[in-house]
Structure formats: structure tokens, C-alpha cells
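Most newcomers find our protein records easier to grasp once they have seen one. To make this concrete, we reproduce a full record directly below:

…
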Amino acid sequence: MKTTIEQKKTNLFIILAGIFITNAILAEMIGVKIFSLEKTLGLEAAQINLFTDFKLDFNLTAGALIWPIVFISTDIINEYFGKKGVRKVTFLAIGLIAYSFFILYMSTNIAPSDYWLKVNNTDANGQPFNIDYAFQRIFSQGQAIIVASLTAFLIGQLLDVYVFHAIRSSTGEKWLWLRATGSTLVSQLIDSFVVLFIAFYLLAGNNKWSIEQLLSIGIINYIYKFTTALLLTPLLYVAHHFIDNYLGGKVSSEIIEDANTKGYQD
């Protein structure tokens, strides 16, 4: 019986870690695209004025679409495997993201085949097209962006863990929504500004943004993250339900209690 429980626990950790890491890597890879939330939803541009004369819309990185999944995964791992479980997957994800960027850097700098360039030398409308240039533009992200993103990700994850357990210490086992959503909202508030500050101010050289720009764009990003986190809160209970059914109610409670006293040490 013990072996079966341990196997289920290990399987659960692998599945949750896989969801977490896959979405973290994908969010970084697709983050190069900026999309319009309003146009996607068929709405008029927001045209919000904050601190500057610029009218700001909800223009977000494509990675913002799936970052909420990363933070929901964080909260679920936190609930069942504690601080050590989250730290394991966080550091593993950072290592794999850095590895992915290194491989992408290598792939954008190897010499393209003449055959590949020739068969892809026009677009769908017959216009001249340089596929190697397009490949480099899509997959080459500036070092400042990479450093900023990884730093913000690490700080956000560690802060999420701290706030999650601080709330749990005060409320006990009840109010999963409060500790999960609360930790996400706090960590994403910091994340939203850290990545902008490092990439577009600290490491931007002569092209750095003003503090007003950083604040206004950071607030726009956080409004989206804040709203999304609230809307996705029910998914925590859905996940909790299926996990509890998989483990068994008694075993699930024991694992949660163990995670919040000793952490995940397997």
C-alpha cells in the first residue's frame, strides 16, 4: 500500500512539474510576439492615459496568455509538495529555459542552406521573402530581455511561495482561493515591474524608458494578470477535486499536511 501511495505521489509531482515547465518554456519562446487583447476580443482600443501623454492599450506579449497556467501550477505544487517542491521545479525550469535560449541562439547563427533559402524565397503573395532573416527575428531575443525575464520569474516564484505559506499559516487549511490567488497577485505585481525595470531601464543603455513609462505599462500588464488570476481561480478547485480523487481524500490530506510541515523531500 505504501508503495502505491508513493508512486501516486511521484506521478502527481511529475505531471504537475511537466505542466509547469512546459508552459514556462513556451511562455518565454512565444513572448517575442506582441498582441492586442482588445482586437483579439473584438473590442475598441482601451486608450488609457497613465502618468504620460501616451494612450495605452492592452498590448501584451503572447506569453501572457499562458503565464497564468504557470502560476496556477505553482499554487497546486505548493499545496501538495510545499516550498521545496516549488523550488525544485522553479530552478529546473530556469535551467531549461536558459538551455532553450542557448540552443535558439546557436540555431540562429548557423549558416542557412542555399536550398532552404531558395524554396522559401517568396511568401504566399509571391513577394520576396528571406526565411533565415524571419527565423532570426522570431527566435532571437535580446540578452537584456532574457536576463530580465529569468530574474523576474525567479523572484516571482520565490515570493509566491512565501506569500502562499504566510497566508496558510494565518488561515489554516481553509480558503484555498485566498492563499492561491493572493500569492499570485502579489508575486505578479512584483514580476510585472521587475522585468520592465531590468530590460528597459537598468540594461537598456541610452534607450531606457522613463519611470513614468515603466509605471504605466507595468500597471496595464498587471491589470490583465490581476483579472486573469481572479477568473482562473475556480480551476484551482477543479484541479484539487481531481487530485483528491486520484490520491484518495485521507491520503491527499496527509500529503498536504506533510508538505506544509516538512516540504517535499523525495
User: Anything to note?
Assistant: The chain is about 75% helix and 5% strand. The chain has one domain: 2-259. The longest strand covers residues 34-36. The chain has a mean pLDDT of 86.
